[in-house]
């Protein structure tokens, strides 16, 4: 295989691996947000129930795009709970948390996803993968908005 083809394959594998971490972080944060939607209680129940639903719905729709980008790079997307669990940097949620603890936990989760996204953008741009960089940039914008809403709610 010519050197340029070999390095393109290596670049695709590296980007796909970073996207797999993003998929795992995104999926875990989606599950956490959905679980908090089910389990939130207290005087802010209605507004948080709605906020969490808006956010987990947006994340759910994006997860497929991330997995499909991994496939477009010629790699298999992780699909099992254990595969995703081994790749994520986000811990599972705790349904016994107070509403404020849930918000703080989601704030931390979005900060983690944002850091992962910045790594994907950086690597993708470095290797000239415009499509992956674009996908990650769009996801970065969405998670920054989710984080803003959570921070504003915590204030």
Automatic annotation (TrEMBL):
In this chain the Ferritin/DPS domain maps to 18-154
Q: Which Pfam families match?
A: Ferritin
Tell me which CDD domains the record gives.
DPS
| Signal peptide feature range | none
Q: Which domain of life is it from?
A: Bacteria
Supply the PANTHER family for this chain: DNA PROTECTION DURING STARVATION PROTEIN, GENERAL STRESS PROTEIN 20U
Q: Would you identify the family this protein belongs to, as annotated?
A: Belongs to the Dps family.
Q: What is this protein called?
A: DNA starvation/stationary phase protection protein
């Amino acid at each position: 295989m010519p050197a340029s083809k070999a390095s393109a394959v290596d670049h695709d594998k590296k980007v796909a691996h970073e996207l797999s971490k993003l998929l795992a972080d995104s999926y875990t944060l989606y599950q956490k947000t959905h679980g908090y939607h089910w389990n939130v209680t207290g005087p802010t129940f209605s507004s948080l129930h709605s906020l969490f639903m808006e956010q987990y719905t947006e994340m759910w729709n994006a997860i497929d795009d991330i997995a499909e980008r991994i496939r477009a790079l010629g790699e298999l997307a992780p699909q099992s709970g254990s595969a995703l669990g081994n790749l994520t940097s986000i811990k599972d949620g705790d349904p016994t948390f107070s509403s404020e603890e849930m918000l703080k936990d989601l704030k931390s989760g979005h900060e983690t996803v944002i850091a992962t996204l910045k790594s994907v953008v950086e690597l993708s741009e470095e290797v000239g993968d415009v499509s992956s960089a674009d996908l990650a940039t769009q996801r970065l914008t969405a998670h920054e908005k989710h984080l803003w809403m959570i921070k504003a709610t915590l204030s």
